[in-house]
Protein 1
Amino acid sequence: MRRVTGSLLAAAAVGAALTAAITMGSAHAGARSAKADKLVVWVGWSKRELSVFKSVVSEYDAKHPEVQIKVVGSINDTKITNAIRSGNAPDVVSSFTSANVGVYCGTGAWVDLSPYLKKDHVDLSQFPKTSLYYTQYKGKRCALPLLADSYGLYYNKALFRKAGITKPPKTFTELAADAKKLTQRAKSGKLKVMGFDPFWGFYSGNFADMTNYAPLFAATYLDGKGKAILASRFAWSKLLRWQKKLIDYYGYDKVVRFQAGLGDEFSPSNAFEVGKIAMLMDGEWRVAFIAAEHPKLSYGTAPMPVDDAHPNLYGAGSVNGTIIGIPKGGKHADEAWALVKYLTTNDHALAKFSNGIRNVPSTRTSAKSPELKPDPRFQTFIRIFNNPNSATAPITAAGNANLTLVGRFTVKWQAGKVKNLHDGLKKLDRQIDAQNAQASAGGGPP
Amino acid sequence: MSTASVPVGAAALVRRRPPPAVRRQRFLVAVANHSLLIAAAIMFLAPFAFIVLTALMTNDQALSSHLWPHPFRWRNFSDVFHQAPLLRWTLNTMIYSVVATIGVVVSSVPVAYALARLRWRGRNLAFMVVLIALMLPPQVTVVPLYVMWSKLHPFGFHFIGTLWPLIIPNWLGDAFSIFLLRQFFLTIPEEYLDAARVDGCGELRILTTVVLRMAKPAIAAVALFSFLYTFNDFFLPLLYVGENPSHWVLSIGLSEFRSLRQVQWNLTMAATLLVMAPAIVLFFLAQRAFIEGVTLTGVKG
Amino acid sequence: MLLLMSPWLAGFSIFFGYPLVMTGYLSFTHYDLLSPAKWIGWANYSYLLHGDPQVWPAVVNSLEWIGIVVPLQVLFAFGVALMLARARLGLGFFRTVFYLPALAPPVAATLGFVYLLNPATGPINTVLGHLGIQGPLWFQSPSWAKPSLALLSLWGVGNTMIIFLAAILDVPRHLYESAELDGAGPLRRLRWVTLPTVSPVVLFAAVFGVIQGLQYFTQAYVAANIAAGQASQAGDTINNLGYPQDATLFYPVLLYQHGFVNFNMGYASALAMLLLAVAFAVVLVILLNSRRWVHYAGAVR
């Protein structure tokens, strides 16, 4: 979840502390003194979303006088790694970059949760399979999912009506055609409204590492042995060529100029919310943002279009989530675990959190909770999340660094700097493999 | 350019009014020169002007191509303080700069004196080492230094996340200041020092009484540069307090200002101006000292 | 003597000598600060030379900066100083105007420039638009990002310019007069009188510029992050260093990325060793020619 809102871990902390009282966990510190232990929780959310998180955590805090919870928002992965490696870690950490779980689990930066899970008899099957995948690395589980994300299509109904389009596109060919119909230019040729912006790196939907488009083309990054296969999988070339064709239609420079004048993704001047972009691939949280910032916007949600050659994929999408765990060097591991357990498994906490920030509930029971407030536009994303063809980014020893390499390539490609796509992808594969080898060279997980 | 010349043989001592042709040439040259200067001045001032104008706009105007604020939003300058803990950052920066500068002066003066005026074996070698330390990029030592600080936990105190790893090394000598002061001390005539030695003063006393008094401008220059350098420091604070917002200095805070509030450019520019202000104000108050200090280091070095 | 030198001796050993040796040691290990350093021999170096796709762009960027922008800075500062030296009216005013930008903290100045050079809504392109020119993409274009940084650094040459100005004004009058007597025009006088006399200062400024260029970090780092955010690139979870397309990825930025973003400290140490080798070579060249420069050493940070 790449968003910036406050975390609601506090409320879940209440439930977790209760369970902590029962389970005595492993031997770390664990001294339960008479006065309240201070638990420090780091999360990535900020502002509105942070206050929702804080309200969830405060419910836990109120029921657990033996802990006093302090929530810190706006945390990113650099801060987390910094803190852990310098010995200054908080008690609970949460990250939006599930791709880094390979680093966190592989290096032991986040502690192995299996002893706790076993002690408390936590049933892992309550979590969806994909979420289980992006919270462990090579069998070592050091995180649990805390609400999940899925990506779908947001489209501006008013602009659709104006352009005479009646329903959202289902294939990429239709997407490109609709995008061209919806685009408006000024007399000078400058772009005024873009139908669909496929620029690699633009907002979260278009992460340059292509993770959000991969499931739509059934494209996989690694083979069974963990080697990169972008060159041999035809789906990647197809995706990249489609993307470049659309960029060239707009004009690369024109797109860059247009984007430089857009508002920030998480500000009220978000390009989709103010009608500068007609169709946007974004995460499910956007529903809450629009409700808070532009409630009168006439828009709809649908699954993203898919590769023409794989129409059966329609309804799937890219899936991800916030991960939460206990950092190495944290001082109150048992109480921290209690809080984590509450936040990730307690139906009430998850439902309340999900309602507040409009993220997908991450357990099967909470997804059916009567507390959830229904919203048809939000339902789209729950369906996408549960679609069997939805996929997430690969987890490797180098973590996000692999995806950074992919991103370097795609932005060069769209700028027209890559002469031969196939050769470029082959070189990229080699770079990824070398990087993974270098990251595991220290005797980390092979 | 001018091709006319004073006739050979005319004594330079006789300052006759140059002929009208030459005068006209010189006038044109001066005009051209001044026009260039004015053009350059406009280019140098333009960024400041635009920043000031943007700092007075509303957010929407700042995001558009408007050049002139409509209306003037003076509130921005106070809003900035609500958006971000500017005062705390300033406090952190001041602590860092002031304590580090004092440390630099206190520790570098004796070393520079020993290198300049005392005679001992290995003096030239030591000076060469100082020079080398001065010229190598900090990046060559930054990794092990970080590791060292992260492993030190005396009484449970964590150095990473505080500004101490930046301040402490400045109390053990700073290569640049040592270099500067040594060059300056070299220019102090030996006679003064000999006179003091004859009077029976030990080296330490000579240093504190005679030399210090004479070296005031150099010490002032060193203090000034140290202060400015630490005030503007970004790389080292990024490493050590980057992950601890309560200890951020102004440079870090300003670079993060945009992400704190999902960027409002008008406020960001207002914050930028506020951060630029102290140095500029300081300059206007102490113009002479500034220019002299810079010149001193450059020419006398 | 030992007492006077002691602060520096301690400081040097702890904060320079020891880390330098450790950098060498760490470069042969795989170290992420969580588990003990593991010896892996030459693996880091072979990855550096063969595996890491970002090393070559970083090296080229830094070399371009040193080879093109630093001489540009020296020339520009010298040109401005020349103009100032000839100014009859308002010397103080112009001098202040040209010096002020050098006082702006690097982060603040970079932030200002990224905003000003926004290709869509920035004032510079707006003004150019009124003049009928379509402004380039500045920080959003890989071919214009470095020139944008170069413009930023030229804006701040005030310190160097002041030093040049002092040196130019210091040239003894009688040298000009005798040249004039011999029939030398202004250009000739510049070439044969001014330049030779101030050459040590100019040379030193160039040397200093190269040393600074090898450490160039702050402006590139801040510009990359701010420009990426401005282009609506996704935020926090993305590594924006070098934006766009590695154009602003200078060697120190690369080192920072590997050492303090990826926490690949062994590899970062290997990168540091390479930087050390290059910097040391530069230092040797300087020291071997120090006779010419050592009196004019000292400059501004």
Protein 2
Amino acid sequence: MTEPSDVELVQRFRSGDPEAFDAIVRRYQDTLYRLASVWLYNPQHAEDAVQDVFLRAWRGLRRFGFRAAPFTWLYRTARHVCNEYNRRRANEALDGEPADPAAGPERRVGDLDAARRVRRLVAVLPGRQREVVMLRIFEELSVADTAQAMGCRQGTVKALLHKAVRRLRENGMEGLGE
Amino acid sequence: MNRRVSDEGIDVEAEIEAIRREYRLLKAPDHNLCRVHARLREERPRRVALPAAGAALAATLAVAALLLALPRADRGETEIRPTSLTVLSLAAGSRPAGAVPGLSSMRGISLPAPPGSAAGAGAAAPAPTDTELEDLRNHSRDEEEKDHAKS
């Protein structure tokens, strides 16, 4: 049996099937958690942020207009939520409570290492190139899906990826072996 | 991607691939879905309570608006009692201009039409003639006198 598409799941959810929502969560929770881990660099915050995204999805997908793919909506919401977390954390740090990236359960230390290595890799890239590397290389999205998530053309994705890889070759690998 | 070695002797593609493999092992915690459900349950009672409070507030405001509108209804050229307009609307088979559905039957009044509105210009119901208004005024005055005599 073929898996229902994202659009089908959202339609089922909107017509009152709560299991369709669970299926959406199961399908995208790992992707969103990985992205949030890199953006937030704190496993506990990443976990909370992903839950926040799905809470917003519970409300937002009921009014979803299908102008974009459901994943695009989730991805942009996740980015927005993580930006809010980072802003809040920056304010906390200014108030004298520095954020502790290692905070969280012991079992998440490995996650922190993986997130740290990706962060270091993409840190040398400008924003759009970083985003395309995250989605295309690390999340293994197709060019079309990457373009939709980023709200640009497929040609732009290819060009950004090409520049990003060239830049990584030139100077992005410093310190990765640490 | 062509395999290229950086100036530091690192195989860039191999390094990216190694990081990618490690990164792809990251998984959301097993309890994530349960936590989402738990948080949704926490949110729902609050979300249900809010519309109820909003409806109560809206009802209070509607009653207040009615009470404020009452003196305005009396400020017209002819001294029209609210009951007269209601009776007129029933006689005409439609609501008078500016009437609020449901409220007139509840309180026996209707609101004046907003100035310059289409309804106020007589689009919804024909404007009462002077004779009709006079009849109705006499009718409601009679009714009041009867009530007064009874009490």
Protein 3
Amino acid sequence: MKKINKGLIFFVVLAVVCFTVNSVFTRAGAAGFVKLQGAGASFPAPIYLKWFKTYSSSHRDVQIDYQSVGSGSGIKSVIDKTVDFGASDAAMTKEEMAKVDVGVQLLPLTAGSIVLAYNVSGVTDLKLPRTVYEEIFLGKIKKWNDPLLVKANPGVKLPDAPINVIVRADSSGTTYIFTNHLSAISREFAKSPGVNKMPNWPVGTRSKGNEGVTASIKTTPGSIGYVEYGYARSQKLSMALLENKAGKFVAATTASGQAALDSAKLPADLILFVPDPAGKDAYPIVSYTWLICYKKYTDKNKAAVLQDFLKYSLTEGQKDADALGYIPLPKPVVKQVTAAISNIQ
Amino acid sequence: MIDKNVISQSPTRLQRTADIIFRFICNTSAWLTLLLVVFIIFKIAVTAFPAVKHYGTGFLTGTTWDSQTGEHGILPEIWGTLFTSLLAILAGTIFGVSAAIFLSEGFLGQFIFSILETCKLEIRPLWNKLPERCEDVLKNLIELLAAIPSVVYGLWGLFVVIPLIRPACNWLNMKLGWIPFFSTTLSGPGVLPAVIVLSIMILPTITAISRDALAAVPPKLRMAAYGMGATRWETILAVILPVAARGIVGAVILAFGRALGETMALAMLVGNANRISVSLFSPANTLAALLANNFPEAGPSEVSVLMYAALVLLAITLVVNIIGSLILQKASAGMEGGR
Amino acid sequence: MDIWNPKLKTKPSPEAVLNIFEGVDFSELEKPLLRPRTLMNQLLIALVTVITLAALVPLFSVVVMLLLRGGRNLSLAVFTQLPPSPMEEGGGFGNAILGTLFMVSIGSIISVPIGVLSAVYLAQSRIESRLANAVRFAAKVLTGFPSILAGVFAYGALVLTLGGYSAVAGGVALSILMLPTVILTSEEAIRMVPSKIKEAAIGMGATNTQLIWMVLLPTALPGILTGVMLAIARAAGETAPLLFTALFSNYWLGSAGHIDIMQPTASLAVLIYNFAGMPFENQVNLAWTAALVLVLMVLVTNLIGQFFSSRQIRQ
């Protein structure tokens, strides 16, 4: 019994220590302290987290928190009103928006590109024409030394090896963007599998998350897969040059990304997909990603802080985009989005 | 310490009331557990109902999962769940029970003791606790395996296990590809890496609980067997294991449940392909991994379908447990005279 | 002849050992290796040893990987700082450590009492008792419960009703996963208490409660503790249930100087899950360090538990 008493005392002491440590480090401040909670897509999570952290450190009475749970869960949280704002790569459908009684305002704060990364030893420059990469993902082109590939890459030694296609195992916004593009350039792909967050891929091994696909590409010889630009860059994977609508082979860079976004004008509700951009230097696979805010907040402080943060993200925040692998928003887009901020009250 | 005076006096009024209250609390706890499980199953069933109405039993035999066309079938997942879990239990039981026997018989301690003996250190005060301490360290090391997060196991599988076994597996596929188990190549995630990692994840459960079961066998039984001239191993096989069987089977069933429900690590390692194949190297999919991969992005109608899959998983766990109980009944009926 | 036996806690004095066999001829007792039974004995011992060592190889592999990748960043800073944003230098996961401690504690406070008391009920029940069989069956069904479903269920039950993510919801989701292990292991542990001890206590006049509190539970404590420790280890490492209940937080738990468990809470498991999937080196490295810290925390909890559990000598 004595030992159990000692045990109880130990745990009480431990609890007290934990409480004290936490209190010491927690930000003090009573009135005016505003906390915002968001959840949603993982595609923009790195840049959002950077923005929130920087903003919160420079505004001592504000704490903005964000967790990437996936676009679908983000939208669900917005509908269930368990968060103050959400985020989604696939925007929101009209039915989903109708479920929120106070209305939602979608704001594109950043954009990103998706690359086709590959792992073929000895091959550093790979050009993929439209018809070719569409057929690779349909399972029609099965080998690296297929005549169509050889024709597009003169002088490059392509091995006689099977193409190991790597796709996503989980439902994702990245997949949605990629299938949107493939469906736009290929009628056959549009029929089946079609545009989907989790399509029925006819070919390929599946890995979980962008990081899973990256790891698989890195460790599987002869593989190719689609990942966000930031992942391929950070893991130094070779990225293919893709043929855009104008017929030029383009690499994913900030410039080519912006050229793609420039090619289409955002409508009034700020929801626009660019599955096949027309510009000469445009990179073919890009997409906006949206922050989802309510149109009316019961706590006016939250609305005010949110508006201030949004202005920050559209001005100072855009400077972080390049370093983290995102595309800074073109100036006309920034203007349009800034105007829409006033819809949030 | 048991206070003999307190027990041998006849209970006071206070103690009798305390007794009644305590029995009531235990009764309530048991009811709470039961109600919790019933409530959980009820909630899942309610969410799953639209999907059940829509798909019926075709859900269980369908093989495609296509959100575009609305065609959903989980037969590959059912197969994958059973295949990976059974293989993992096989490996986990062999390794886990061996480790439990190793621990409970004190082989490590004896080995260290014999080393100390040759150095003539066994009587010295500083050293004579060493065998026991080593046993404790080993026991804690194995239980430590349980603490490693699923995600870390997934990463370990991706970065260490798969590259390690890929050459051997592809060699097996080349030379012995006619055997159904080796009939495909290992391109990455698949059944074998998943089974390897899964068996390591359930090992501590089997070992820790089996060790306790083995250690609880009355020393008298062991001494009696030795006294009759049985060797170490004859005692273990003929006397100790049967007596501890109930605890060991309980451990295996608990581990099976864990294997069936393992989500994160398998989502990263099993390959998530809607394919049914006996090959150890082919990718597959499990019900839990299906849930993990689809749930975050699921819309309301898809949630219903996923809950249907969850119900099927619970049903499988139910069936497994029924089979386990039957095995246990047969086992204990066979050795009634043992105690 | 083995002088040292783990079952006996006493050791004979050296002189007694040396004197006792004076003059006895041992040759008859020694078994030659080539007799089949002895050979089988040694073979099986060797086999079991090899298999156990084989089981330890992956353990060492994982631990070495943890140490190598996680040990790099281990410093005091990780315990006191908040998670860094991408490409930011430094940072730590102090809030995640606290969050895990809180939520595993909440999970234990819910699951351990209910679990052990239910186990007491089950162990003391008659074989035909329908309630006992139903409860045992329910606990077994719960063993196969996928961790993500525990989170989904807690989301529906707590997050929606309370209007937000919270540490409490996370703790409840964890307790659902811990409960079956605690119940089933504890029931076995209590049942394994030798019936002679039970009968002796009843014979001396113990009430049911006295029997349970003073005899059964203390004797079964090591076994119950094994179950609780396994449950805690699992709960500390689970990600899926926390994703939809406690979410995550990049800040300390609470605000304005007081603890708030009704808010999204950081946890080591979710931190590892998030950061391991990031394309930024600083965050991936921190994920490994967090995994190492998590395993060490569970080890320490294990050791503390063993220290406080009284190992009863069977009388």
